[in-house]
# Entry
Amino acid sequence: MIAMNDKKKKVMALASLTGLAIMGDAMLLIVLPIYWMDFGLTSIWQVGVLLSVNRFIRLPINPLVGWLYSKYSLRLGIAIALILAAISTFSYGIIQHFYLLLIMRMLWGIAWSLLRLGGYLSIVNLSTDQDRGQLIGLYNGTWGIGSLIGMLVGGFLIEFVTLFWICTVFSLLCSCSLLLIRKHIPANIGNNTTTSGKLQRSSFKITKEALLVLTTSTVMGLLIFGLFSSTLSLLIDLNYQGNLTVLSLTLSASAIASVIQAIRWAWDPILAPAVGRYLDHTKSKKQFLVTALICLAILFSVLTRSIPLQWLIIILLLFQILSTSFVTTTDTLASSFAARKKSVSIMTLHTVLVDLGAALGPLLAFNLLEISSLATVYLLAGIVLIGLAVGWLVKFDKRTLDSN
# Structure
């Protein structure tokens, strides 16, 4: 059995490199929806495409990444990912052409597949039912610090420093992290000998439970990583009158959005493992998920109204707490399901569907904004969450009837 401290060290090493790689992407998520013309774009729909294509490319790539990790070392996959991340991040500061940016976003999508699936498969193999939620929370929370830095730096410094220098610094940090791979990353994805066998690339039967878990994966990607993340700065811009001043500086909408996103990533290293520990020791994982879904749906409906900035910030922070709980619960349910079935295919499918949802989120949102309002988009998001919650409640009801 692997000691818990050793497990945490391995997970944190992977998560730290992932955090260094994601800083450029996090910065772009805040800056691009507001300053899209500075990137040489000619229409707002191009914003949705650039924020989505890196997720779409992961759909065919994820199965190939799963195969790569079954044949080659984890170190190789992480090294390739960091190189691609450094190239794509640097390009955001020098390229002002839609189609070239499109190619760079595809490269980042490949890098993220290598990082994310490598992390997930490592956790599934390292963990047991007693610590899986905690390790997933630790992983998500630690790499989230990279998003925190990217969003804060991008949101604040874009007003004072050129995009070129921001991207150059992020790219250099990502490049330097290559030196850490040999010392801190194991050669191969470990195998948990305390469970009944190694994860296999085997087929599995699509049961109603599997369908519900994987639908939840898709919705999580669609609404949390896709729609909400890509429209947050736009939401604040629509409700903000430019009257918030800190240290004699009037904050821009992008700066406020970056702070709100960064606060989530700042508390994630504490909150996500705490949620994970709760999930490890409770038999009410699914009830916890339904509660989070309903609360998020309510907040989406509240955000459809014009709200004073101070109340908007409070509501958004509450939304971020609930989204952390939603993400950690969904990842835990998917990894537990994969561990029970002992199949790499399940975890690969989970990451594919999260990526599919995350890809569709910005694309659908910004295309709907061409013909409708952000309030309509958020109202539809709330309806989707309520529908998913009803699906889980129906499953509870059937299970209760069967047990009786």
